[in-house]
Amino acid sequence: MFAKISAMILYWSHGLENGPLKSLVSGSDVDRIIKCTEKLVREYPEGESAWFILAATLKEFLLPASRRYDPDEAKRHPFYPLMIESFDRLVEINPDEPVHRWNRAMLRQGLGLFSEAIEDLQIFVEEVKPGDAFDESDYRSWLASAYDHLGCDLLGIGATEAALGALNKAIKLDPNYRYSWEDLSTVYEILGDGEKAAECLRRADELPEREE
Q1: Does residue 201 contact residue 181 with C-beta atoms inside 8 Å?
Q2: What is the residue extent of each domain of the chain?
């Protein structure tokens, strides 16, 4: 199942970023795409692939990765309830697929729903297994990224000590992920430890930026 969903993610993400799907989603045809896909999922409510495409389209339309967006504006959009439903349905249809819970966590984080994102990420880090990723390195990087996001979300609700623990786990898994060092620096700054905050920033500056 992971291979099928992963291939779908790669195809859809590539299309959104580089191909004709991007022009469709960002252009005047987006309403038609969403309405046609919604009709499909209503006719086949257990159709995982259709729900995935609907969720990806709505997220790119309301919360585009290519530019800044206003979460509050997204929440007021007529398509917002459908976007939430589509991500929830994917978790309901296939709760054992880690990609669905990961994607919903990223959606919730993007909307500023930190407590809800924390719930998904905590389940994700407990249940994701090496076999869910392409290889051991990919698994460790994915898990490290999850702990990094978890730390940021915990920080978002004021759970500073818990955020510190999550970020330290992220760095232990992937010490070359600069964003975890930057986030850890923020935590130490909040805790009043300027020396450790500066050291974390120094470590971050030594590492290259890379995509998630």
Answers
A1: yes
A2: 1-94
